[in-house]
Amino acid sequence: MGHDTLARFGVTDEQLDAWEEDASRGVFPGEPRGEIVIGRPRLTDEPLRAVTVTLPQSMVEAIDRQTKNRSDFIRKAVAACL
């Protein structure tokens, strides 16, 4: 990484090397700070169902200009209409 690692990330190359060595041996210092959750956080407590919609290309392009996540955008639009 070079000599700017400390300035950019607040750690030295030597610290990174030591952490890598520990991790490769399965040594992780410190204590867990909470439950380890694998995967994305759930959106709701009830079961989810996938719903596919087909939209005109121009509508998809308009959505893409408004957001980085189509699913969230469409989910919010549907919720606003219900």
TrEMBL record:
It comes from the Bacteria. This is CopG family transcriptional regulator. It comes from Muribaculaceae bacterium Z82.
